[in-house]
Structures
1.
Amino acid sequence: MTSRTIKVNYLARVEGEGGMLVRIKNGRVADVKLKIFEPPRFFEAFLCGRSYLEVADITARICGICPVAYQMSAIHAIEDGLGITVPLSIRELRRLIYCGEWIESHALHVFMLHAPDFLGYADAIQMAKDHRNLVEQGLELKKIGNEVISLLGGRAIHPINVRVGGFYRTPTADELAPLGERLKHGRDVCRKVVRWSRTLPIRHYSQQYQFVALRHATEYPMNEGRIVSNRGLDITAREYDAHFEEEHVSYSNALHSVIKGAGAYLTGPLARFNLNFDRLPPSVQELAREAGLSGACRNPFESIIVRCLEMLFAFEEAIRIIQEYRRPDPPFVQCEPREATGYAATEAPRGTLYHRYSIDGSGSILRATIVPPTSQNQKMIESDLREYVSTRVKMPLDQLRTECEQVIRNYDPCISCSTHFLKLDVEGEQ
Amino acid sequence: MSLKPKLAVWKFASCDGCQLTLLSCEDELLTLADQIEIAHFPEASSAIVKGPYDLSLVEGSITTPRDAEWIQKIRRASRSLVTIGACATAGGIQALRNFRDVKEFISIVYARPEYIATLDTSTAIAAHVKVDFELRGCPINKNQLVDVINAFIHGRAPAVPPHSVCLDCKRKGVVCVMVARGIPCMGPVTHTGCGVLCPSFDRGCYGCFGPKENPNTESLAYWFERLGLRTADIVREFRNFNSNAPEFRAESERQEKRL
């Protein structure tokens, strides 16, 4: 009997606190654990009793990297419950702030967390010693994303201007105009970045994934759409609980999201891209094809290219919105609370983010349910680790450990987000 | 061996937003990295340099038995320790558990409550170890963060004023949302640093930077009542992202007794 263990006590270059354990016995993978020791924070519990108008501000604090996603899913769910429909001009501004977050979050992952894996550095700062121009381009794109969020939301992290019904204050066309110029500059840089991404040494690996993402009648999905998969799922957010469940697996300390009767699935850029390739503007499709991708990408190591393409899409979309901008007046739709349950799913940078709220007649939250993308992807991450290691059991341990970390980083996991659904692992060490 | 000062970044219960602020210093980051050695920052780097560290930035609050031990080790390994953000400085939004039964909280969120090892409270870092400076905000302001790092490297005091948001609204010429429009605003008792964001966007401040120096919370609660807020609403105003900061906690408890 031979037994080998690959262990990472503290995963670097991911958001939040997690570790990993893979055990190989007699040349076979015996055990895989994505370990999460991020402390639980109990958002669903303390949301109870808060006002429906506070939900956007409170749920933003689940994640400092994608607060806009939480704000968007939260307000859409409340509006669904209260039967509020916002005018097109408000809808467009929401899409604009979401574009800012996609750019900021994807740029952070592509340049600061993921690229060092491909180019062989410990971090972006080390990488900058040899690739200063590349890192500066990445920081520039990230900065433009943050400028979009700040202009609309007041600040890049935990914006203060988003509310049920719309915004507290909307910008004038003159205030938005300079941002349009910055975005055009960003788009040009981003085109170069897409071309750079396909020169990276990409590992060969693929699985037959079940992809899940939103799909909209005409747009690349952000705020709205049906929840679809490449295996026939096609539902509204209101039907989410009937089709998805959280499963307790004996070998793991985490609750895993699965599709009832259909198991693990992948959500995030790869799923969105594959299920919505036809909804990308022709300019983005063309660059994708140049990179050899046309909506059937099954190699998660290529997610770095897909994130660059989605960033480019977000630049194009943001430019369009600013060009067509009509200032919403009034800035938000007035609403009165009533007893209701509301549901929504939007596309966070890391994948589909589902929220459900029940409120009473005074607008007080009775129940809250939040399912972040990373808790949905956990089971797929473990499946990838198992699959990846199974054909590389003889590889030197250090190299295998490094490559396993990269398998996890392909998902851009956000452990801070996922924790309300994960059991605390007391074995975790720092 | 590098002779540059060694910086470490640590995380406890939090959203990651305050340490992300360091990576959001897009214009300053590479310059900063020339001046200091980023020795421990797992969110950004897989290279970990052993301590001791000249400056530790600590994000997040203490909520588990393991973390209560861990912060002691970090303190011992750090020449200076600065907390960044509302979680590390006041317990954060997760300190709302301090006002309720945590067992009830666990059972709402988790299917198997017996597996969860957590403390009954979420507390600030200063409740556990000596803290050299507390930087406020949910999230922190990035210019203040750069200033604080500079201050500790050069042995000077940080330039972070302790006055109210209210005062800065007057300086900036933002029309008072409370006086002019009757919108409840925490600005008079809240620590400045955000750049008077909320009033500039036609909404009341919700206190995410925590209490200013010597806040008169009782007076503000009285004015909230005059504006027509119910006592339960006033409790909520003082009980969000900095609910466990002593001054806000005292006021919310004083109001709660009136319920």
Note: Residues 37 and 426 of chain A are 7 Å apart (CA to CA).
2.
Amino acid sequence: MRYFKVIMLFVFILGLVLGGFACQTAQLSSPQAKLEVIPAETFLSPALIRKPVAFKGSGFAPKEMITVEMVLPAGLKMKGITEGEDVGIAVGTTDENGAFSTAMQPTATLNWFFQVGWTPLLRPNFKEARPIPPGVYTINATGLDSERVGTATLKIVPPPKKK
Amino acid sequence: MRKKCLIFLSIVLSVCFSIAIFSSPSCAKEVSYLSLADYTGPIAGLNVPADMGLEDYIKEINAKGGVDGIKIKFIGIDTRYDVARAVSAYKRYRRTKRLLMVNSISTGIGKAVARLIEKDKRLQIVPGDGEFQAHLQRTFIWGPAYQDAFAASMDWVMADWKAKGKAGAPVVGYMSWDNPFGRELLRGGKEYAEKLGIKLLPPEFFPPGTLKHDVYLTRLAKAGAHYIHAGGVDPTPTNVIRDAYALGLTKKIQMICGYWGPTALGIGVHAKALEGSVITSFYQRGTDAIKNKVPTDLWKKYRGSLDKYNEAYGMGMSWGMSYVAGLKFALKAVGYDKLKADDMYNAYQNITGLDKHGIQGPCAYSPTSRRGSLEVKTYRVENGKIVPITGWRKAPDAVSLHKF
């Protein structure tokens, strides 16, 4: 009888944990949020200020705010960011169909791709710049009401060699 | 077998018990303050000392046992003045238990985060955008609105003009950053100047980071400006006046600034060029700030010598004073266990008249006011020091003159 009670207790706790997990998964996966990074591959150059990396998404809730974040690989130190933290690189708002498009603002490109310093004249200081290394970076777009997440990648390649 | 089962059962119960204990409110009584700040970006020069003041004030409160035994946790995030980073940081911290307030360092960040603040039934403070007074929500401003302080500047201009024995009204030029902040002062400020009969020249807007301001200054001078308002956040106004000085314009044109005009930061670099410039501020500046023992004693205790003291430190302390007063009110109303962010929002509407120890005017937050204070004081740069030339006076309500 005692064994039966212990087993029932175990099953009950397990049920609670799995139930909670299932609810969370269901919330996150329905419907499927999608994200596209444009372009999906690029190299760092000042041209990104004029023609920045852009993002398109769908499958989010209507009229919700979206935060687009770059997941920093372990060991990559970034000015102003605590290790293990993702860095926000763009914001957007979805339309009535749950779709959005947005692009990185110049401050975001300068701060997070080039990691520039700033002069007292409020100009970016490229002498202090520490551009992020080439690699494949995970990009997440999260709906701030629905908490749906769309994921894509951005590949940063080394700049072409000067001839 | 029975023994094993009992061991297993006791482990399960211990884990459950531990979780219950650690999540219980009696474990660590703490409330949080989130600063979406700029520590390494373009306006770090003013934000760093301001958050130092806030952080030291919180340290002092905590060292004395907190507010009714409740400690305040300061969370400072370096957004580098970037909206995307600020929104992402808010997402990260918005579920923090008893996160009672968010301070957004720029108008742009404040406007982006405001939607989430409304949804989360929280409270936010932002610099000085009059729109938050025009449309009352959960966003409060640090002092009078930008346009109110600009209107007070125009009052000073008229008084100065008359004191010089001149008839009629002067011609005033306006130049500032080409962004929403740069334009905000004129949304109500323009109407106020016109009401006084002042001829406001077409404004000159320039991008933040402009190296030289000669073109804009020359255009305003040629148009007959007697006074020029140098906008932007210090060191921009300092650099505008530096250029006006180099062009010889400061001999015949009076340069004036709003509340982000020169602080110790600008004076330290261009004291000679700034000589005679006039600043209208909602927080104590220059010699006034140095004489006020409330902020300077705290600085000396936590930071040492006053050599690097910046007036923005006092403004940061003032944020802390409002927070502590709001927390006391909220705790009295609902107690710690039931305390939610919404209670702090209600509390902030009930700390009207809170004394800020001379750092700025008394708190003006109320159910119908989002202004941190109503008073401004006018200063002039004299002999390389910022000295007061008026007492505290109520800034006109310029927000109500504009249709938002």
Note: Residues 32 and 151 of chain A are 10 Å apart (CA to CA).
3.
Amino acid sequence: MRRKVPSDLAALEGKSFDLDKAMTIVSFILLFVIVVIPVFMIIYNAFFYDGKFDLALFESVIVDKENISAMWHTVIIAFAVTVFGTIVGLFYAWLLGRSDIPCKGIMRALFVIPYMFPPFFGAMAWDMLFSARGGYVNEWLMTTFHLAAAPVDVNSIGGIIFVEVSYYFPFVFMQVVSALERMDPTLEESARIAGASQGTVIRRITIPLVTPAISAGALLILISSLAHFGVPSILGFSKNIYTLPTMIYAFISRSGGSFEGIRQGAALSILLVVVVAIALVMQKVILSHGSYDIIKGKSMRPTLIKLRGAKYPLLLLSIFTLVFIVIVPLVMIFLEAMVKAYGLPLIFANFTFDNYKSILTSQTTLDSIRNSMFLSITAGIICMFLGVMIAYVVNKIKPKGKEVLEILSVLPYSIPGTVLAIGVILSWSGTLGINLYNTLWIILVAYMARYLSFSMKSASAALQQVHPSLEEAARACGASHTEALKDITLPLIRPAMVSGFFLIFLPAMRELTTSVLLYGPYTRTLGVQIYSLRDAGMIPQASALASIAIGIIIICNAVVTWITKDRKGV
Amino acid sequence: MAKVVFSNITFHYGDKCILDNFSLTVEESQIMCLVGPSGCGKTTLVRCLLGFIKPETGEIWLGDKCLFSAEKGINVSPERRHIGVVFQDYAVWPHLSVWENVTYPLKKRKFSKEEIKAKAEHALKQVRMTGYEKHLPSQLSGGQQQRVAIARALVSSDDVIVLDEPITNLDAKLREEMLVEIRMIQKAVGTTILYITHDQEAALQLCDIMAIMNETGHLCQVGKDEEIILQPANRFVFEFIGISNFIPLVLKEGKVYFSIGEEVLYPEGSADIFRQHPKMELGIRPNNIVFDDRSPLKAKVKTIVFLGNEFDYFLTFGNKELRVQRNALDAIQHGKFQEGETVGLKFVEPKFYPAKEVAL
């Protein structure tokens, strides 16, 4: 028979204040405020009107022809981006992970670069090069070959797919490269010893073992592309090509921030959420099938496949790909930033620093940089601590309902930024008694919801490495719970906290999707400012600001690499 | 130096009962080895003692200090129990140097600077780690890390040190050295030591008193190592400590037979054996089986393994395999057997235990 613990025993612990309990309660409350309320408000406003259940709005949104075509575009683009992105990522991952191609280290670093920059920078660059109206390359081709029409039009579904692929393939690339690295090479070697040919080994051993990594990367591409705003808005608006996120944006900006427009946006958001949810369910199903434990944590030297004659052609192909997807857009932005006026040939005589001068003296632009800095640093620091706290509650305290906590903190990552922004508007613009609309705080709340999972995951992974006996040893040595946390646990996960901060700081610096729906007259962010400069036709100025953003991103990335490189003893 | 008393400790993990009314006393300045198979609740007991988990019933005393009492509602928090502990994985803090690791408990207990320095230096000297103060744990070998952990435990408590399977990760030679060292440190300091292990050889080497726990978390026997080996309290202890052979017996018309495929008369067997249980087995240690050509009990030598100081014979006795150990010197003097030879057997000091229920 199980004897019950006397209930008053718990009260006699000797302390009235219980740190664990406090952290658990605070975690639940914060996630409720940051995540649950916005999600609830979207659903409520899409289906209820004046407190009554009302499907009329939702129905009108669903049957709208434009909306249906936007949904199709979203699905087609996301599907194509996923397929091509996976193929490209997988091919280069294999080439760099398993073949004897030269210059691996540098190429690997270069292939991850697109991951650092916002895709809408690429869209801007390609738009300058291949726009049907006045793209530099198109112009040149038309004059050289006396063509009547532009041969390539990047303002098309194909163009959108191409640009998104070039920014999203690193998802698969990075996942697969690391899986290949951590895979025990004896698994392949024993297949060779057992008499399998090289081709059979790749087909029957290597590919199945990295399948979980491939599908994880592919679904990441799928979800990111479904929710993506920047590229389709820059390339698609001029030709009236809409996807769901850009459609939602159009609804809201058209209505000028009226409640009716936001409600329509909310209804449309539900459609987008449904599409993303289907993708997430697919992810769950696919990933649950393929978890192998034979991928080890430590890296080993795999046997490399000799490319022989194909070595240099493949090297050339890789270099060409890198130049095409990484170098060309970046160079284009910098060149355009220096040109006197959009459309002028890119020759030395037309170059000037006036664009930099004008944006750096413009108060709005300087404000936007300051706003972004403030938002990114604040969101980074707050989320860093919140992430550690929630990760600690989930991993170490393990209260009842920890699964709820875990899901809630990761959920916003799967919610498209556009949808999240609408949820935040609906929640914090007065309906619940707090009005943050048109202030930086509403953007901060959105960023926190959006990026909390980054620091949470990073802290979780680190905490799982901290064996409970380390903290217990401190307790046995006479340290109180708080002291053990301060002296042992926190110092041990400090590197993860720092990288968690940058994981939030960097994407927040260049954020566009949510800020573009939340900004007010005095709360533009860097991304929004670039976007609206370009929207206003000031393309050279937009490029100049983008090039400054690129500079900031590169410097910050260098700092991260430098910080995370030499951690001591851990 | 203080004695540790567990009385009537009960603990459930979920619905599973880990400890049921468990009582044990470790006398002052004694090395007590708590031995039991993996998963029998040894670590749970340690965690109760350290205060990381709360038993449902009973009391825990350290000297004259009550650490836990369910009835009186006492539960001293871990940091105020002053128990030195060496964890299974050492739990040496990887971000602190050896010196910082060892002085941490002293700082927490607010000793003066001079005292901290003196105590930490002394502890490091005892574990022969002087000169490594500035090293980080990642620069030390497993054995060295363990010694740091022991030094840290030594400075955290003069009363009692708990070692939870601390040497399982070391190689055989280092393990031996560590055991000798622990023994020597204990002699010098006089601390009470509770040593938790599933490794009976380490236990035999180290302890003053052994306590044997069975799979269900019950204490089977507490006693000196010779007692445990020579007078095992029950079949579990007999089987768990040392190597053992079991031969099933049957009683027919007042005579005892070995049931080994065929039935072979056991001449020394008396019907009394069957008084406690209808199904009995004879249990015997390998070195209590003696070769005797005159004995009517015959077995065949299957394989011989030479272990350096002794010979291991594996014999076929009917459908049973018996393991017999013989001192190497003795074997060489009296001539050893060849594989395939038939030998006569004699059982010295056999034990009789009820047969195990065969799980179907």
Note: The beta strands of chain A are 48-49, 52-53.
